[in-house]
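Review box. Two proteins, two foldings.
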Amino acid sequence: MERPSLERSEIGIGSVRTLLTELESLTQDPDYEYYYRGHSNKKYELVPSVYRNSGWIANEHRMFRELILRCPDDFHELETTFQKLVKMQHYALPTRLLDITGNPLIALLFACKDEKYKDDEKTKEKSADGEVIIFRLPKKEIKYFDSDTVSVISNVSKQLFEFEFVVKPDETPEKFSEQESIKLLIHDIRQERSSFEPKIKSEHLRSVICVKPLLNNPRIIRQDGAFFLFGISDRKSESSRIPVSYIYKPNELRLVVKAGDKKKMREQLEALGINGGKIYPEIDSVASHVKSLFEVKANA
């Protein structure tokens, strides 16, 4: 069967070696850090999961509280909203976090996941091409888990869907923070950071930032994980966007994993010790991986 041709703006990643060769061409700069993300379908957008369904973003504040209400023992030792969002993200609750990794092979594994889609209701399911995205981030703009800016954006999760703000020209943070919506946000922030000054910069709320989390979670450690934390665009219903300057590729050329090459590359990654059982250390995920190793396929 003839492979579909790649678009002119794409580079085909048909093996682990091909990806590593591409990475060797990266311009190394000590003032920047590189992160990666793998999409099992190249049509996916760089948006956090809570914005992928209108019901989720409309009820983000409720989902946040409902999970804590139902599983209090899992959250009682977590001090900040960001730490709770990280836990929720790993429990697959939609959040305003987007996972990224410092390990390109882990990103490739995610890009090699099987993904089916339909062009319309009448056509049969097709296997989707994946993609590896490379981010080049200025070190000075990367935040740590205990940053004030991280607390500001994280606590947007607790606000009602109607949360919004108005930015006036040359407005000071003190004046901006006099809005009722911002006062409510500051109230939530000060519940976890009592020393937080009651003033917020509007540009922080509008930003998307890379955050390095606490390495207190086996999954984060094994995935060499970090997160993009998404602010809003003046109203909660609209997410901020990752700055174009952060995207090293596909700004130049997209690194596309053709659907027909995914199985072969999963086997290559397995040989290198990169598999679902390693990056998802919980017993149910490890059991699922072990089961797949010995499964007899119907067409085998």
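Next protein.
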Amino acid sequence: MDDAGTLAATEIGWLRGGNWGAVIAGLAMLHTRGVLATGVGRIRRTGSLPQDVEPLERALYAALYGSIGPGELARQKRVQRALRDVRQSLAERGLVRTSSRRVLMPVLLAALPPALLPKLVTAGLVGVTEGLVAIVVLVGIAVWLLPRRTIAGTRALTTARVRYGDLVERSQLEPVEVGLAVALFGTPALQALMPRFAWDAGLLDGGRSSHHLDSRLESSPWGANTNSFWN
């Protein structure tokens, strides 16, 4: 199955950048739909939400009570539940590892064998050489399990980047296309498509407040060409 063609923008964002990658993709789509306003590193909603939005978009919009920073917004319970649903959907499709496989199993594989080896050698159950080889193999498996994406997830992300790689070069994009671009390329896409919103909302520093617009974005060719459309 071509996973890249069936993944939602926020799912691709999570696949690339975890919770924050999904959140900025959702906020970028909400901004393009015209329902967000910004001020000094904070976001507030200004319009009615369309019906055909992704579940994470709906959760972000619903959690916007008054004016709030993006990092605080991402930590709201409603948003956290939606993010867990996104991750669960990806895990069910074999694109990311579950928390137990990614954290617990690597810890057990890396920590237990070295602790048990001296006892096994003393008891004569294994030789030193065999024990060391086994430890190296198990630690290698642990390292392989650490990345959040599976091989299938990495393949799907690569395919999506090839398929949608030209999005930031287009002059006009639909909200979902904006979400895909930000999901795939993160900060560079935000800077290219909506520099003022990204800085004013505090999206370019991981959700911490930004109090000014970088003048380099104002003078960049992307910023000059897109400000009138996106802001």
